[in-house]
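New here. Invent one.

***
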Amino acid sequence: MIKECPHWNQVLSTANHGSHLFDEFETRATNAAATVYRVKTAIEARETLLQFIKSANVTKVVAVESKLQQAANINEAINTLGITVYTDPHEIALHAESADIGISGVEFGIAESGSVCQDAYTVESRLVSTLPPIHVVFLNSTNIVPGIEDAMNILSKTYDRGYISFITGPSRTADIERVLTVGVHGPSRLIIIAVDEEV
């Protein structure tokens, strides 16, 4: 996967961020109907994901790999369950709509809103995060910034073009008779697996 900004860790190192903001982030993300798991290591992240996959009766996965996923051999672990993981851009395009879960990494979280920010420069990263009914994201728990203004400051120093997604909980709309409906225009579940270990 090609990212518009290949140096997110360098960009974040100059920003106000840290794991001390995680509790607020988790509260806001949970209030927005996301499910948040915090684990210490990449291996624990893998085990958390595998348990979730087993409980959700998953049969097909599309994934855009992040460093954390690679460090924990997550795709290989899913394959040992007899589940196919599609990672090639062409395969993602073919299978994203019928996949049970889309897996991706995100660059940082925003404590003020419980949102995650994803560098979605490639089409496959957008497909993985919007078409399957469940979107699982991996986040480094130290990469939390205080607010929206901080996020915009980071982006203003990083981008002159590209595609960024701010994801806050599952997809929802209330544009038909003001009745809230979840999962109409995107995933009905957002699972955030936050990892303390830096990879």
